[in-house]
Amino acid sequence: MRGTVRKSPKNYPFLLGLPGASERLELVEADLLSNGAYDRAIEGCDYVMHTASPYQINVKNPQTDLVDPAVNGTETVLESCLKSDNK
Q: Against a cut of 0.85, is the pTM above it?
């Protein structure tokens, strides 16, 4: 199983310390808003579950602070899926 994290996987010892994680979990650093950031994470996968989305209570502009990053992030993941050899 492979998952993505925002910063170095070393910053997530609680995930890597879960039972069986050392044998079955690979964490890959990926920035949701950077084109190509998910290429490595998606390569070789049969399925992709994208569940990340920005969430804040107090925003000045819901469109630019929440909707645009959510849509752009989803497009980034989908573009990496399209580039993958596992189509």
A: no
Number of domains present in the structure of the chain: 1
Cα-based distances in Å from 62 to 4, 34, 68, 77? 25, 21, 9, 22
Q: Domain containing 72: what range? A: 2-83
Please check whether residue 70 is in contact with residue 53, taking contact to mean a CB–CB distance below 8 angstroms: yes
What does residue 72 show for φ and ψ, rounded to 5 degrees? -65, -40
Q: How far apart are CA 66 and CA 60, in angstroms?
A: 10
pLDDT tier, 60 (very low <50, low <70, confident <90, very high otherwise): very high
